[in-house]
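Hello Y.,

Per our agreement to keep a running log of every chain we model this quarter, I'm adding this entry. I've kept the format consistent with earlier entries: sequence first, then predicted structure.
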Amino acid sequence: MISRTRSGKVARMDDLSELTARYTYGTWRYQKGWKPLAVARAEGCYFWDTAGKRYLDLSSQLICSNLGHQNAAVAEAIVEQARTLAFISPAFTCEVRARLSQKLLEVVPRGLEKFFYTTSGTEANEAAIKIARLYTGKHKILARYTSYHGSTAGSIAATGDLRRWFVEPTGKIPGVIFGPECHCYRCPIQHTYPACGLACVDYLVHMIDQEENVAAVLVEPIVGTNGVLVPPADYFPKLAAAAKKRGVLLIADEVMSGWGRTGRWFAVDHWGVLPDILTTAKGITSAMAPLGLVATTRAIADFFEDHFFAHGHTYEAHPLTLAPALAAIGEYRRLNLIERSAQMGELFGGKLRALAAQHPSVGEVRGLGLFWAVDLVKNRATKTPFNTPKDKVERKPLVVDQVIAAMMAHGVFVMGWVSHLVLAPPLIVTEAELDEAIAALDTALAIADQHVA
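Predicted structure for the entry above:
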């Protein structure tokens, strides 16, 4: 296949990587040297490049293809909706909007009763911040350092990781303050759970008490890209109670941790906590259409009966994004994937821990359901990671990238960040596929082992 360039010359479409790198931007990276793998097709837990090589998708792309690739029911829902009603302004409504809203009441935490539809998790968090400020009349948002909430002005302002650094000070909204994350392996307050008494929560509460005008605390119930940080069982109940007592909203960012990823519909379900606002995306359509969701309590919904809801956009509640979500919920249930995620997660976690015992470069394995991280260290005793966020910004070689490259060479794709791997296969993954991943990881970790001090 060929195409014509702007100069009129004919370019061969078999070099998709070169054309893509030349004419489009790669996200969150320096552009020099970027040559993305060209993918021809995907199915189930696998995808194939244009040369025909098969890859096991061990990270569900960006922790989003929860149902696996090319789910037939979701694809058909998109096609049927396109034939029926491809678009209508959000000022109107249609059958799929009403049906999905009703269906969501069956799966989101009980007490969340009104929804705003976006086209991404970033937009969902942007809307949540604005809703919290409008509802409370206060403007400060308390987030955590080890976090990612999106790339727009509000969501990047609340992001604690290195991606925020590049837009400061003018590319983000003011009024966001940061507190300590819940990272028991590398506690930022130098304590050990449970003797710490959850000092990280106490510090967040201290910040609320010392600051004025805190509208909300925005947290990922299980931190995603930045390390799959699973809090102790009493972390969220304690944080939620403290926030409620002080009139501060709790916003749960479940963009990654929702839709069965942790063995429950949503991660907050593990702790019986009702957030005031929940945001999600990714798995809501198994990433087969761009949909994000903001879910609020009835108290917040009632407030806007007589107060102006100052938010909206053209593609809000777009029918082509809503129909696949309705189908996806049906597939999660038909395939029993919420319960299956919990069961397969225990199996996967056991395999990962057994593997870690054989590799001195693995400092910790942590996770819940089918959401796991392998933390790479150059010294187990000191828990020192091979690389830091500053290394990534300064384009220094990262050990984790070498491990990822070795995994790809063995036909397994896995996502990594600074000094850890994020392992989150589709919820339909089989034990045989997990064993395939473990075998590739065993080989790849030998590279990290060579760098151990």
